[in-house]
């Protein structure tokens, strides 16, 4: 019966296919003899079938195969949908707020609603007629072959000219993938020029190695037959976007980048730019038909699209608001350019951005345009270079140019041009540096505050002659205070202080007089003050030290001031200065230990201070060690006390902690205290190690049930099993054996 039903079900399908073939054969002669409407429709239908097969390739599968792919479920479509929307456009949303003002965010909301509503209309279009699965299909249904051609041309122009790279069904990506491989190879080999792979006597250089690795990662995605299969790869794109935005929030909320006061409610001249940037965020709309075609339950498409657009819009709006609040009118075209490079979160964001596809043509055109504007057009022939990768262009230029032939300062403000000039400065002759120096000198201020130009200035300071150093320093004179507060300018100020002679160093620091505390409290200026303390003798900067000594405790508890206090302890050797700072630290040791930033100052003294200074702090904390061990910041200080205290001081601390009875058991389970217990196991003497291990051993099974207790279990098992413990449990004196027989930690072996 089962086989019979199968035959019965299959018969109508065969009859339908045979009928279609007969219709095509019946209409074919008419197509040659009489261009009637029926003939045109038949010809168009046949053309559409052929076109779809050609365009869709592996993605156009049989109905049976389609059902098999859709049977995997629609749950995978949400991350895919979010991925096609959340791309590099999120990096420019703060800049869009800068251009359009706060009210410009209404445009983002309107575009989100428009994207969702047009998605619903798209579903209706695809359901209106059988066989409609792509935008070209809709164009054909509405306007015939002309509509299909126009829509296809637009989609391919977007793919190849605009540079939005999407790897999935219905898109032929051979050329685009090659461009992407060149991009990744060029940029990664620039970042890691020494990378290579040696197989026997054969060595693969960085350029080829990264091209191969990128191919191995990217190319398999072009063979996927269904968009739902792509969701696992799409999840990587979603995660990358979320990571970048999360890093932005981390820098603002955790690393405490101070908010900017400036900001406009509405900037009408910048609205067109804002519209373009916000609109780019939703440019993945063109892939919605692919998502719809790959869904198991197409009726849920509106909910899927709503979820995708809602999540993406929240991500866009969050990045836009946080980025503009943090950077204000200094917001760059991509917020990653504003992130302080010294922060871990900033580095994560930038590296995550590096792995995102960028438009090679834009970068190449930029550098070529700048080179054409310079005076080297008679030396370099540019025609035909637009198809090369960035590194290829730079290498070609490098072979034909000397540093002295580059006279346009705008090249220094280009990402790739800046890197090119820096490389040239390292190998250039003194004569070539002298030729470019007038342009550097004239534009010193502009280059110093530029995201890429500041690196050129810093590099020039490294290789400049004494005369050039003096002239550059004089050019910046009167601007050092202002530059100290600027994200890129502060780096140049630090470099100048590092390389100029003492007389000029004193002159530079003099410009900061009456603004020392203001600099210390600034995210950029504090680095300049630290450099001053490191490079200028204390007796030449008395006003800096005086201002610091008046605010020792407030600075110790400040996120930037605590760094400056540590530099004072390291580089200011005047007994009066050291005494004043240390007296305040010891006096307020307990409060500083519990403070979010003050604990770093106490840790610094414990690790680098004199023995008497360490002893004073440990004595100040004695009696409260158990309580401090259970606090997030103070527990780090307790660990330092155990690591750097004298044996007698360490013994006293361990006695205080272990003899606390039930509290000691609580420490082993505590999220912070467990680290203190681990430190005790690392630093205690043999006689204490046996007793402590015996006390802990009684509670190993219980500790395994606690998240943080497992850390103690792992440490103890490592000591016992691998033999890392300094004493063997079975080879102790009778005193140790008696200690091992303890059945309860409350017995207090101390």
Automatic annotation (TrEMBL):
<feature type="repeat" description="Pumilio">
    <location>
        <begin position="656"/>
        <end position="694"/>
    </location>
</feature>
<keyword id="KW-0813">Transport</keyword>
<feature type="transmembrane region" description="Helical">
    <location>
        <begin position="230"/>
        <end position="251"/>
    </location>
</feature>
<dbReference type="GO" id="GO:0006417">
    <property type="term" value="P:regulation of translation"/>
</dbReference>
<dbReference type="GO" id="GO:0006865">
    <property type="term" value="P:amino acid transport"/>
</dbReference>
<dbReference type="InterPro" id="IPR016024">
    <property type="entry name" value="ARM-type_fold"/>
</dbReference>
<dbReference type="InterPro" id="IPR033133">
    <property type="entry name" value="PUM-HD"/>
</dbReference>
<dbReference type="Pfam" id="PF00806">
    <property type="entry name" value="PUF"/>
</dbReference>
<feature type="repeat" description="Pumilio">
    <location>
        <begin position="620"/>
        <end position="655"/>
    </location>
</feature>
<dbReference type="InterPro" id="IPR011989">
    <property type="entry name" value="ARM-like"/>
</dbReference>
<feature type="transmembrane region" description="Helical">
    <location>
        <begin position="100"/>
        <end position="118"/>
    </location>
</feature>
<feature type="region of interest" description="Disordered">
    <location>
        <begin position="1"/>
        <end position="76"/>
    </location>
</feature>
<keyword id="KW-0694">RNA-binding</keyword>
<feature type="repeat" description="Pumilio">
    <location>
        <begin position="400"/>
        <end position="438"/>
    </location>
</feature>
<keyword id="KW-0963">Cytoplasm</keyword>
<feature type="domain" description="PUM-HD">
    <location>
        <begin position="376"/>
        <end position="720"/>
    </location>
</feature>
<feature type="transmembrane region" description="Helical">
    <location>
        <begin position="195"/>
        <end position="218"/>
    </location>
</feature>
<feature type="compositionally biased region" description="Low complexity">
    <location>
        <begin position="31"/>
        <end position="48"/>
    </location>
</feature>
<feature type="transmembrane region" description="Helical">
    <location>
        <begin position="304"/>
        <end position="327"/>
    </location>
</feature>
<dbReference type="InterPro" id="IPR033712">
    <property type="entry name" value="Pumilio_RNA-bd"/>
</dbReference>
<feature type="repeat" description="Pumilio">
    <location>
        <begin position="439"/>
        <end position="474"/>
    </location>
</feature>
<feature type="repeat" description="Pumilio">
    <location>
        <begin position="547"/>
        <end position="583"/>
    </location>
</feature>
<keyword id="KW-0472">Membrane</keyword>
<feature type="repeat" description="Pumilio">
    <location>
        <begin position="584"/>
        <end position="619"/>
    </location>
</feature>
<feature type="compositionally biased region" description="Basic and acidic residues">
    <location>
        <begin position="61"/>
        <end position="76"/>
    </location>
</feature>
<comment type="function">
    <text>Sequence-specific RNA-binding protein that regulates translation and mRNA stability by binding the 3'-UTR of target mRNAs. Binds the APUM-binding elements (APBEs) in the 3'-UTR mRNA sequence of CLV1, PNH, WUS and FAS2.</text>
</comment>
<dbReference type="Pfam" id="PF01490">
    <property type="entry name" value="Aa_trans"/>
</dbReference>
<feature type="transmembrane region" description="Helical">
    <location>
        <begin position="271"/>
        <end position="292"/>
    </location>
</feature>
<feature type="repeat" description="Pumilio">
    <location>
        <begin position="475"/>
        <end position="510"/>
    </location>
</feature>
<keyword id="KW-0810">Translation regulation</keyword>
<dbReference type="GO" id="GO:0005737">
    <property type="term" value="C:cytoplasm"/>
</dbReference>
<dbReference type="GO" id="GO:0003729">
    <property type="term" value="F:mRNA binding"/>
</dbReference>
<dbReference type="InterPro" id="IPR001313">
    <property type="entry name" value="Pumilio_RNA-bd_rpt"/>
</dbReference>
<keyword id="KW-0812">Transmembrane</keyword>
<keyword id="KW-0677">Repeat</keyword>
<protein>
    <recommendedName>
        <fullName>PUM-HD domain-containing protein</fullName>
    </recommendedName>
</protein>
<dbReference type="GO" id="GO:0016020">
    <property type="term" value="C:membrane"/>
</dbReference>
<dbReference type="InterPro" id="IPR013057">
    <property type="entry name" value="AA_transpt_TM"/>
</dbReference>
<keyword id="KW-1133">Transmembrane helix</keyword>
<feature type="compositionally biased region" description="Basic and acidic residues">
    <location>
        <begin position="1"/>
        <end position="26"/>
    </location>
</feature>
<feature type="repeat" description="Pumilio">
    <location>
        <begin position="511"/>
        <end position="546"/>
    </location>
</feature>
<keyword id="KW-0029">Amino-acid transport</keyword>
């Amino acid at each position: 019966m089962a086989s019979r039903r199968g035959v019965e079900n299959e018969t109508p399908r065969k009859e339908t296919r045979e009928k279609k073939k007969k219709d095509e054969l019946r209409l074919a002669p008419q197509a040659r003899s009489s261009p009637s409407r029926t003939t045109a429709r038949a010809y168009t239908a046949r053309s559409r079938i052929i076109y779809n097969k050609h365009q869709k390739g592996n993605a156009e599968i049989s109905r049976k195969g389609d059902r098999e792919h859709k049977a995997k479920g629609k749950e995978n479509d949400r991350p895919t949908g979010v991925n096609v929307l959340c791309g590099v456009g999120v990096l420019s949303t703060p800049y869009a707020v800068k251009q359009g003002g706060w009210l410009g965010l209404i445009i983002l909301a309107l575009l989100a609603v428009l994207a969702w509503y047009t998605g619903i209309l798209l579903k209706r279009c695809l359901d209106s007629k059988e066989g409609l699965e792509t935008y070209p299909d809709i164009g054909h249904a509405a306007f015939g072959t002309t509509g299909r051609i126009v829509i296809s041309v637009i989609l391919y122009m977007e793919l190849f000219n605009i540079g939005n790279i999407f790897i999935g069904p219905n898109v032929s990506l051979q050329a685009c993938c090659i461009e992407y491989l060149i991009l990744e190879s060029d940029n990664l080999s620039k970042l890691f020029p020494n990378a290579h792979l040696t197989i026997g006597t054969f060595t693969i250089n960085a350029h080829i190695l990264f091209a191969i690795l990128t191919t191995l990662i990217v190319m398999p995605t072009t063979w996927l037959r269904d968009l739902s299969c792509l969701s696992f790869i799409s999840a990587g794109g979603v995660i990358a976007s979320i990571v970048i935005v999360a890093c932005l929030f981390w820098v603002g909320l955790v690393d405490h980048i101070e908010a900017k006061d400036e900001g406009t409610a509405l900037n009408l001249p910048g609205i067109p730019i804002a519209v373009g940037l916000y609109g780019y965020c939703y440019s993945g709309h063109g892939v919605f038909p692919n998502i719809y075609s790959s869904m198991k339950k197409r009726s849920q498409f509106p909910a899927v699209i709503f979820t995708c657009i809602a999540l993406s819009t929240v991500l866009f709006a969050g990045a836009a608001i946080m980025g503009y609040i943090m950077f204000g009118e200094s917001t760059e075209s991509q917020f990653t350019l504003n992130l302080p490079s010294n922060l871990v979160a900033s580095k994560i964001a930038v590296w995550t951005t590096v792995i995102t596809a960028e438009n090679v043509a834009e970068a190449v055109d930029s550098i070529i345009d700048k080179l054409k504007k310079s005076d080297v057009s008679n030396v370099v022939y540019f025609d035909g270079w637009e198809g090369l990768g960035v590194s290829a262009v730079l290498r070609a230029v490098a072979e034909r140019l000397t540093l002295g032939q580059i006279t346009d300062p705008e090249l220094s403000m280009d990402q790739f041009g800046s890197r090119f000039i820096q490389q040239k400065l390292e190998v250039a002759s003194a004569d070539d540096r002298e030729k470019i120096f007038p342009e550097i000198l004239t534009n010193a201020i502009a280059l110093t505050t530029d995201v890429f130009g500041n690196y050129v200035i810093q590099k020039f300071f490294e290789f400049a002659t004494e005369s050039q150093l003096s002239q550059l320093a004089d050019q910046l004179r009167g601007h050092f205070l202002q530059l100290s507060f600027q994200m890129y300018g502060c780096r140049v100020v630090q470099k100048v202080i590092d390389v100029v002679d003492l007389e000029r160093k004193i002159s530079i620091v003099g410009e900061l007089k009456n603004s020392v505390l203001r600099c210390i409290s600034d995210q950029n200026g504090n680095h300049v003050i630290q450099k001053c303390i490191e490079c200028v003798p204390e007796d030449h900067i008395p006003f800096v030290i005086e201002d610091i000594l008046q605010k020792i405790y407030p600075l110790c508890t400040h996120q930037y001031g605590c760094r400056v206090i540590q530099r004072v302890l390291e580089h200011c050797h005047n007994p009066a200065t050291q005494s004043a700072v240390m007296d305040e630290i010891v006096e307020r040791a307990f409060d500083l230990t519990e403070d979010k930033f003050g604990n770093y100052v106490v840790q610094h003294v414990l690790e680098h201070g004199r023995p008497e200074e360490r002893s004073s702090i440990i004595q100040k904390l004695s009696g409260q060690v158990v309580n401090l061990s259970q606090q997030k910041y103070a527990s780090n200080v307790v660990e330092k006390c155990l690591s750097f205290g004298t044996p007698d001081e360490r013994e006293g601390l361990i006695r205080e902690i272990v003899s606390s009875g039930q509290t000691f058991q609580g420490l082993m389970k505590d999220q912070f205290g467990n680290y203190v217990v681990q430190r005790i196991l690392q630093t205690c003497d043999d006689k204490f190690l046996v007793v402590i291990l015996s006390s802990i051993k009684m509670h190993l099974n219980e500790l395994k049930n606690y998240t943080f207790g497992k850390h103690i279990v792992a440490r103890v098992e490592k000591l016992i099993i691998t033999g890392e413990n300094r004493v063997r449990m079975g080879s102790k004196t009778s005193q140790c054996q008696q200690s091992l027989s303890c059945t309860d930690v409350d017995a207090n072996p101390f």
